[in-house]
Design goal:
Arc Repressor Mutant, subunit A; alpha/beta; 5-stranded parallel sheet; 8 helices; single chain
């Protein structure tokens, strides 16, 4: 699944190019065109990096940046701001608003991807590595394998993605809607109750068919991977 990037850009050709350049690097990418759609999207799940165009319909990128820095759930969200104005004052204003990086158009897709990777490396290096370890669980993205106490865990593709998502933030409680969004995005045809089915399969897989407490059920809230 890789790091999750949300690209908000009203220039559709540019947005599609940026999305493609990120996908070929193994990132999971979503795109939006309006600023006033961003907070609604973030209520479902928080990406690993948010790319914002400075001028957006509804709410501008810089205003969004300021607003997101006041909210506990997005105060540390890595943000890349894109601007059309090659002016030092503009760049400083973007950084002062809370952006972690600011790129001036036009820029090469190579530079864009490098900037995103560098930001992830500073803020959340775990999402760039091939291997995630939590307790006695080891997940390898490159080989698509999971091991527990040196025994290989057999998981289906959906359970693998679900486990990867949970392992990236051990101890954090995710609602069913957040877990659904991590797996299927905005597909409203997927019932949230299907998450219970996949959680059951995941528990069975990592418990080698036995009852296991690695994944906790938090009544009225959702699920969390034990932080050991």
């Amino acid at each position: 699944m890789g790091a999750r990037i949300l690209v908000v850009e009203d220039d559709e050709p540019l947005r599609l190019i940026l999305e493609h350049s990120l996908r070929i690097e193994g990132f999971t990418v979503e795109g939006l065109t309006r600023g006033d759609d961003v907070q609604v999207r973030l209520e479902k799940s928080i990406p690993d990096v948010l790319v914002l165009d400075w001028t957006l319909a509804g709410v501008s990128g810089i205003d969004l940046c300021r607003r997101l820095r006041t909210l506990p759930e997005t105060i540390t969200l890595p943000i890349v701001l894109l601007t059309d104005i090659a002016d030092e004052d503009e760049r400083i204003a973007g950084l002062a608003a809370g952006a972690d990086d600011c790129l001036v158009k036009p820029f090469s897709t190579t530079e864009f991807v490098v900037r995103v990777k560098n930001l992830l490396r500073r803020m959340n290096p775990a999402v760039l590595g091939h291997t995630i370890k939590v307790g006695d669980l080891t997940l390898d993205r490159s080989s698509h394998r999971v091991h527990r106490q040196k025994r290989e865990v057999r998981l289906g593709p959906t359970e693998f993605k679900l486990l990867e998502f949970l392992m990236r933030s051990p101890g954090k409680v995710y609602s069913r809607s957040e877990l659904r969004a991590s797996l299927w995005g905005d597909d409203a045809t997927v019932d949230e109750r299907v998450i219970d089915v996949h959680i059951g399969r995941l528990r069975k897989g990592i418990g080698f068919g036995k009852a296991d407490k690695v994944i906790r059920t938090v009544r009225g809230a959702g699920y969390a991977l034990s932080d050991y």
